[in-house]
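Problem statement: downstream parser choked on a complex file, so we are re-checking the raw output for the zinc ion run. The parser issue turned out to be on our end (a line-ending mismatch), but while we're here, posting the original submission so the record is complete.
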Amino acid sequence: MDAIKYLKDHKLETYALGKKLFETPELGYKEFETKKIIVDYFKKHNLEIEQEFFETGFSISLGKGHPHIGLIAELDAIPTLGHPCANKNDKNAAHSCGHSTQCASLISAFIALSKQGIKKGKVTLFFTPSEEYTDLEYRDKLIKQGKIKYYGGKINMLTSGLFDDVDMFIHLHMMSEANYHFSVAGTLGGFVYKEITFNGHAAHAAVCPDKGINALNEFVLFDNAVNMLRETFVDKDLVRVHGIIKEGGQTVNSIPEKVVYECYVRSMDTDALIDVAKKVDNAAKCCAKAIGGTCKIKTKPGYLPFIQDKNVNSVIYRNMLKYCKPEDIISGNGTIAASDNGDMSIFKPCIEFGYGGFVGNAHSKDVQIVDEERVYLETAMLVVDSINDLLSDAKICKKIKDEFKPRMKMKDYLNYINNK
Ligand SMILES: [Zn+2]
């Protein structure tokens, strides 16, 4: 059966699945209901999942041997206060990053390919948990229980060898740019996570503030220092330092004993990332000391900048032109957002393309799907056409393989993410 015809004939079924997934938002490593919906959907189409991993992750394959193409569908949602579909039982999780739409689109593409059949090579659809870097206390618990090693779902998958057999990866993500139809070859930044605890000394805030050391003042001084450092950030590196106060004091009646600040340092450039992270550490230490207190800095590696594979992208771009004009495709744009796909792209040829069809900016309560045809049908047809092109073109597969150079050795990468 022709896969494209299948997708067109069954589009309403895909839209319904997409709606159901959009309305079932769950945070990372808790995507149990989402998984159940997808597994049941595959069963209905006589397809069985192949592997299960890391709480809620799973995969399903077609064909065998090489080339082996991996598809990445992210399962998780993100806390989004005020979103109409927010999961009130779990930190207002909502699909304001559109991950549910990746799942519905790739499920339909995979089913269409299964009806068509694959003559050569293999396709594996990976459902990856926990891309958003959030809800960290829950993940710390899972780490303690030995269920996961790292926050990012794909980092666990990558370091445990689940991707080893795959030759190249295709991923897709919603985009907020309403003026474009698709995006191709866009880069993503990297980030480092920090939790900084400012320690002071409590005293009655009215009777004897002179006896206290105000941890909130340590933080305020630090926050000003970071703002003064901003003029040293180089434009091309797209540096961002942004955070939240997790704990701002214990009671209004007392000088704050402890203040906890959580932040990301981001950049498109790995060296700048390391440099600014050091500046932030120095500012925290010196500002705490200036007020008479101390601070403790907990650093966790986030995600590395994403590197797009230009050869896989050439196939994707060619197929995009079936749905829109070249001027409707934004190419090579950089966004400072980060993803655990960045870490994968160090080791394997990877691409991520963007698709419109939404209103609202990503991660905001306003995110809604307004163009189901583009979000679900066009993306699925684009993926199916690209897979068929790649599997039937030994020359491009060889070029992809020959020209790809891993950016790090696994040993060095493990040292980096383990803070060694
Ligand atoms: Zn996302």
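For whoever reads this later: The pocket of zinc ion is lined by residues 97, 99, 131, 173 (CB under 6 Å).
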